[in-house]
Design goal:
Length: about 270
């Protein structure tokens, strides 16, 4: 399948949606990768559900609904945390560039890059619709994995919020945090793995495969980068705590049962 056949006007509609929604980052830089991210995915999923692109079936409708659910849950959670948590806002001021000194051309590049990435991430679902893939075992398997990812991420966010209400100055090592130190990021990886799985048997030609794989690899890379950023922050906050040291030495940072306990030394990880 040629490049032009792959990236049709319908694909460009999704990219435009990403550009419009993520433009909120011009108000506050971090919104490019937080609120703009979650709500872009939600609106893209909704657009595919409404427009159908000629391939809407019960299975593909579920895939689109899961994208909407994922994006609304993530965007809503981040919005509530932004509004209600003064400690979070204070932490983010130290951790993330506020963008005030950033040149406008750099912001434009980041804006376009983010919108393109979000479009690539949802592309396996789009290509299933475009290629008339319908409902099959790969579609259903992907939907199940996506639902598990949403549940894991939501559960991890809820458990951490609950733990911080009890003891805001202690790290969270309860529930899902006994399995990995970043279960919310694991849920993210699981969700996008499901998206990729949903399109495995229907992707056609090198351009569709390139779009799907690039989107997946990039978000996994970003999640490992986010895990590194969190690890560095926790090392600063809890590094002298013997309980924390015991916790990090026995609990993998992101992938269960894989003895990877630290990514702090990998400076090439950005997230």
């Amino acid at each position: 399948m040629s490049f032009m056949e792959t990236f049709t006007s319908a694909f460009l509609v999704l990219l435009i949606i990403g550009l419009v929604v993520s433009a909120i980052g011009f108000y506050k830089y971090v919104y490019f990768i937080s609120l703009g991210y979650g709500f872009s995915i939600a609106v893209m999923g909704g657009a595919m559900l409404v427009l159908g692109y000629g391939g809407l079936t019960p299975g593909t409708a579920v895939l689109c609904l899961l994208l909407v659910l994922y994006g609304c849950r993530l965007g809503g959670y981040l919005l509530v945390r932004e509004i209600q948590s003064a400690s979070y806002r204070s932490t983010m001021k130290k951790e993330i560039n506020d963008g005030k000194s950033m040149k406008i051309i750099v912001k434009f590049i980041i804006w376009i890059s983010c919108a393109l990435l979000y479009t690539l991430q949802v592309s396996p679902v789009f290509f299933r619709l475009q290629n008339g893939g319908g409902t099959d075992v790969w579609c259903l398997a992907g939907a199940v994995v996506m639902a598990c990812g949403i549940g894991l991420e939501a559960g991890a966010d809820w458990q951490k919020s609950a733990a911080k209400k009890v003891n805001p100055k202690r790290f969270c090592d309860k529930g899902l945090y006994r399995i990995v130190r970043c279960p919310n990021y694991l849920g993210e990886v699981l969700f996008w793995t499901g998206v990729l799985v949903s399109g495995v048997n229907i992707l056609s030609g090198p351009w569709q495969w390139a779009a799907a794989v690039i989107g997946y690899v990039c978000i996994v890379y970003i999640m490992f980068g986010g895990a590194r950023r969190l690890e560095l922050r926790q090392n600063r906050n809890y590094g002298s705590d013997p309980e924390y040291q015991a916790y990090v030495q026995k609990t993998p940072i992101l992938i269960p049962f894989v003895p990877l306990y630290s990514v702090a030394k990998y400076k090439w990880l950005l997230g």
